[in-house]
Every structure is written in C-alpha cells, then in structure tokens.
Design a protein that fits this description.
Layout lengths: L1 H16 L9 H10 L4 H4 L5 H8 L3 H4 L1 H24 L1 H18 L6 H16 L2 H11 L2 H30 L13 H11 L6 H8 L3 H8 L2 H32 L3 H20 L1 H7 L4 H20 L3 H29 L5 H34 L1 H29 L9
Amino acid sequence: MRGGENVRSVISAATLLGEDSTIIRDRSFQLLLLANFSPPLGSALISPLLDTLVGPFAVSETEIGLLMTAFTAPSIVLIPLVGVLADRVGRKLVMIGGLLCFGIGGVAIAFTTDFQVALALRLLQGIGFAGLTPIIVTSIGDLYRGGAEATAQGVRFATSGFTLMTFPLLGGTLAAIAWQYPFFLYALTFPTAVLIALFFEEPTSEDTRQGSADTDLGDLLEFVSRPRVASVLVGRAIPNFLYTAFLTYNSFVVVQLIGGSPGEAGLLITAASVFHTASATQAGRITALFDSRLYPLLGANLSMGAGFAVVGLAGSLPVALIGSAGVGLGFGTSLSLYRSVITGFTVESLRGSVVSAGSALGRVGATVAPIVMGVAVASTEPLIGFDAAVRSTVVAAALLCGIGGTACLLVARWSPAVEPTSG
C-alpha cells in the first residue's frame, strides 16, 4: 500500500514540477524548505498585528511602524557580511545561528511591553534573517545545476508564498485571543534548527571554504563589477521594489480610489500570492522551454510592470484583481529565475557572498520603495489632487521599473559571459 502511495506522490510531483521533481525527495532540500518557512514571517506575521500592538506597547500608530523598520534595516548591512562568513565557515553553521536568533527574538517579544526592548528584539530577528534566506538560496545553488536548480529555487519561493497566504491569517486568529500568542509561532524555528544540526549535510567542502578564506574583498568587488554580474544584481532588486510598492499602495487604490473595503484590498494580496506561488513552482519548466533565461525574465518583467499599472489605473475591483495577478505572476517567475542565474554563474568560493549581495540589493529596493513612492505622491498631490497623484505615481513606477528591468537584462545579454567554475 505504501509503495503505491509513493508512486502516486512521485507522479503527482512530476505533473506539477516536471522532470526535475525528484529533488523534493532529497533530504537536504527538504530541510532547506523547512528552514525557508521562517524568514517570511518576519514581516508577514507582524504587519497585520501592528494596530493591535499599539495599546500593549503604549505608542502611537506612527511609532508602532518602527517594528517593521527595525526588522528590515539590519539585513541591508549584514547580508553581504553573512555571505562572506558562510563562504568561510559553511552554510550549516550560519543557518543554525540565523534560526536561533530569529526564533529567540520573535518569541521573547511576547514577554515584554517595553517598546524599546521590543525594537531590540526585532533587530535580533533582522540579524537572524540575514543568515537565512540568502544562505538557503546559496545552498540550493551548491546542491543543483541547470533546470533542477531553477526548479528548486522556484519551489523554495513557492513555500514563501504559502507562508504568506496562511500564517498571517493564523496570527490574526491567535491575536484575537491574546496579542502575545502570534509571537509563539516563531518558536517553530527551534526544532528546525535542531533538525538542520542533526541531518543537514554541508554542501560546501573544506577545500572550498579554505579557498573562500583565501579570497579577499578585492576578488569579490572585481567579480560583482563585471557588467553581466552587476546588471543581473541590479535587475534582481527591481522586482523587490515593485512588489513592495504594490503591497504599500494597493489598499489606497482599492479603499480610497475605488471605494472598496480593507477586506477587498486583502483580496489583491491573496491573488498576487497565489499567482506568485504557482509561477514559482514552474520555474524549472519555464527555463526548459527557452534557450536563454532572458526571454522568460523579460516576460516576467513585463507582467509585473503591466500588472502594477493596471492596478494603478483600475476603476473596479475585478480589474485591480487582474492587475494583481500579473504582479504576482511576474514576481514569482522573476525572482526564482534571477536567483538561479546568480547562483549559476558565480564561482563556488564566492557564491554565498554574491548571492548575499543580490539579496542586500533586494532589501534596499524593498526599503526605499515606500519612501520614493511617498515623496512622489506628496510632491504631486498639491498640483493634481490625491487620487491622480496616487494613480500617476503607480503608473510611473511601473513604467520606470519595466524600462529599468529590461535595460538590465539587455546589458546582461550583451555583456561578456561569466563562466561558472567549481571554485
């Protein structure tokens, strides 16, 4: 009976993921997916709770937003440093440390009502995040190549989408009982850290780590300054900028411009999450259909830009939902393929550092998006009114990101190739 179930599960996985579906039976990959459930909770679990936390921490609505900033800020600086560390001491130790910092910082918030302490704990979580997502992405690049690697990156990204679709709802349900309860979900990182310590096989060899130790900062800067590498790293940050802009302004469009409700605005997030999860699982198949990843990346870039522009111009909820689907489709495809490209052309002794540099640029894009968009809306509102300012800013961001993303891809296409080596 069990053999039949195994056969059916393999057939089901092959139907969903294609010929590279066997990766899901790899224990190391399964452990990486388990670790990957935690990082998205850093923002997704807290964001819906911010209004609920104003009272317990006795701060204003403006100040409570610092809980988000305190989490995102450390990774901008730390991710590149952690990448260098992972190249030198190995992926396993860094992931275990990241999981412990992330879990301790999150759970401990449930035991304090001191806002300054909570901010410090969120900083600790941000430090932990720096040792998770970039290292998980890098480890997948260590383990797989070609279509299998693209499929693995897509499945990893799909698990992030699943987390975004489910855990915020669970956290909101727990918060209705007591504001502290959602923070206990961060304790899931502790058994994950134990499993990683016991069963995860370090994907880098001692020789590779020694080679990384012999590699100085000049080698890294020389590598990332190559036109193809630099253009891919910059291009990889654009989806983060655009998706964060979408998350920030979809509610303004739905509630204030269309006349919908906050619940209907949430439907846009759900639609985008569903499509980004679905498209991410198909990254390997998409790669197999083309001789170059340029074409699917161009299509993903177009989908994100056009989708966000449709959201900005939407006059009804169904139209906005169509736009959000385009945003999610492009986001899931582009980040999965960009991460696969970066791990594919990077020498093994620098892989963690380069992937981390790309992740840091992505975090920069996500951090500055609300600021840039806010400045644009504030500058144009006195001239054309709030509604027109929001719509024009969203459309302008969509167009500029679409043009910028296309330019990065074309520069990468026409630049000298970067040949992968074993390190």
